[in-house]
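--- STAGE predict ---
source: upstream dedup step, 1 unique chain passed
mode: sequence only
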Amino acid sequence: MEKGKLIIFSAPSGSGKSTIVNWLMQQHPELQLYFSISCTSRAPRGTERDGVEYFFLTPETFRQKIADGEFLEYEEVYHDRYYGTLKSQVEHQREEGQNVVFDVDVKGGVNIKQYYGQQALSLFIQPPSVDELRRRLTGRGTDTAEAIEERLAKAEYELTFAPQFDHVIVNDDLATAQQETLRLVENFLGK
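--- STAGE serialize ---
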């Protein structure tokens, strides 16, 4: 069985990354795309199950795995609230022939690309402009004005990482961005 390949998606919040990734995975089963199963030190929510949505670890176990160099990438989002991707899990999924999809922050995306090099395709989904991003975040109606300004400041910083990705897809028109993403992924997978 041929080893699976790796596809990395990163983007500022509100750029449409999750919409594009979910469309790709649901509408194109022939690509055999599977999410990488990450680890977190938070407790399961609702119906989440260990080893399905996440691997749930204690903060102590998470820190030990960091010390042992077991993560491709990780982040401490809040005190003792970690998220990360285990090298062993990615390799297990690749051995199963799965093409592994990463939906990660820009630093994580850059780290995974550096680790895997040509075995990974890194895609940066970019909003057409910061003004459009502000409009989208405001339109969601889920954040306070202060939270939106924080997200926009973070987005401006994240946009500086775009040149470190293999391709930048500007999500001005969703259908166009989806088709461009599909073409790039198909080319990379040799389909």
